[in-house]
Structures are given as C-alpha cells and as structure tokens.
Amino acid sequence: MIRAITVDPLAPLHLAFKEVDAPQAQPWEALVQVKAVSLNRGEVKDAKEQEASSRPGWDFAGIVIEPAKTGAGPQKGARVVGLLPLGAWSEQVAAPVSMLAEIPDELTFAEAATLPVAGLTALYALRKGGMLLGKRIFITGSTGGVGLFAHQLAAQSGAFVVGTASTEDKAKLVREVGADEVVVGYSEISSASKFGPYDLIIDSVGGATLAALLPQLAPQGICVAVGFSSSNTATIDMMNLVTSGGRTLYSFFLGEELTRHAAADDLSLLARLVAKGRLTPRIEVQAPWTEIDTVAQSLLERKFSGKAVLHIG
C-alpha cells in the first residue's frame, strides 16, 4: 500500500490522504517514486467536481524504481519528470515512458516538477506562431506559471514581447523575465494596441479580455486561447473579425496537443534549458505535501505568482 491524495467531498477542499494499492505498471510504463509535485489551478478546481476517491494530480518528478518492461524510456535509478492525466499526487506512480523524461543532475526535483503542464503549454502555444524572430507577441496571465515560462521562451526567440500585470510591483517581475513592455491592469487591456498589432497572442484570461485582444491581431495573426480565468464566455465582434480576414482564434487544450507532440522530448528540452540557466522556474511556495489544503487554497485565491511545489517523503 502507498499513500495518495484523493477526492473526498467531505474535506474542506475535497482533498484527503488515503492508503491505496501500489500502482501496477503496464509494459509501456515505468514505476516512479515521486519526490515532488507542482500544483495547477485547473486540477485543484477540478477536484471539487470529481467523484469520491478519484486521484488528482498532473505534474511530478522522482526516481524510476522499475523501468518499462519494453525496455524503452528511463532506466532504474534515473531522475525523471513526467505528466499524468490523473493520479500524480501519490508516493508512487506508473507513467507511460512517452510522458517521461530524464532530468540533468543540476535540476532539483522541485524545479523539474514545474515543467510539464505550465512549461509544455507555454512551449506549444508559442510554436503556434511559427518563426518568432522579429514578430510581436502579447501574453496575458504573465505572472502565472504558463505566463512566466512563455515570456522567458519568447524573449529568447527574438520577438518583441508585451505582457500584463495587475500591479506595478508585478510588472517589475514580468520585465525581469523578458517582457519589452507591460500593460498594468486588465481594465487597460485596450491600451495594448499601441504596441501592436500582434502576430501572436497567448490568452489565459478569456471573457472581455479575449474580445478586446482579437481586433489587435495583425493580418495572418493567431490568438491562442489557453484558458478563461476571468470568464468562460466572450462576446466577439464578428464583423471586425470576419471583415479583417486571415486572423485565427485557436482553442488550446494540452491533453489534445499531447496526442500530436513528443512530450518526452519536449520535457527533456525544457529540462536542459533550466540546467543551462536559460529558463528559470519561479517557485513561490514549497511545502510538504501534507500541507496540500493550505497551499491549494492560496493558489485558488491567487496569493502568489509562479508555481507551488509540494515535496513527498
């Protein structure tokens, strides 16, 4: 038996510890002793909608204790980072080797655990813009996990990058990670037009923000909608969108993207960038996983920027 965090409708945040059966790996899966996990707002919110005893958790990092029987992927003793659709908040996991990458010795487990959901989302969203050298990019949610990674990766591409922040203090952080300009306050989102038009917009806010950004796309520009933190509905000026022609609104869902990308290779790329000092995970909170309730509540209330990591064992 092992311990895992499961859904309990009677718990304050619907999260509780429970003894569960140790995972049994399929031939294409490796068994991993989990050392750290990172939290994403989506999985914490989803826990309240899941059935009792469901197993939340996406991002994890740890050590392979039993390699895949096919012989593929990381071998026993390898330090790895990985991604699961469910169940990562556990002492041990069985993970497909296609979602598992070895990490350099220079990386801590905490740093590695921040990479799967936030890092891959940022990487794949930026790739929608094609060759970014000399292009203009606008990123909302700049101080979140995805936003901070997206800014750092975009800055290295040679693009002109504009970010967002709710306060002047947070704007300093956005500039530190590579933004050329920062729009302060989402009520001022229309003022972003003075730095545009944009070849690529990455939006995690939705609602009125998304509606205000679409007219700021350049001809043949693309807006990648990766979330809807403010509202899941938006009123779009269809006449402007249609008569402008050539602009694209792309609906981004990481689970679907992973069916068309080599996640293991891309996780390895992100890990190497961190090891070389070209990408820096911003970890605002680190705590034992026994403090899941406190950290998850702070995450939902947006009390910190960047990522939260829980250590297991």
Automatic annotation (TrEMBL):
SUPFAM superfamilies (alphabetical): GroES-like, NAD(P)-binding Rossmann-fold domains
Q: Which InterPro entries match?
A: ADH-like_C, ADH-like_N, ER, GroES-like_sf, NAD(P)-bd_dom_sf, Zn-ADH-like_protein
Q: Which domain of life is it from?
A: Bacteria
- Which chain positions lie within coiled-coil regions? none
| A Pfam family that the UniProt record links to this protein | ADH_N
Q: Which residues form the Enoyl reductase (ER) domain?
A: 8-310
Note the CDD domains from the entry: MDR4 (cd08270)
Instruction: Specify the protein name.
Output: Zinc-binding dehydrogenase
What's the source species for this entry? Paenibacillus zeirhizosphaerae
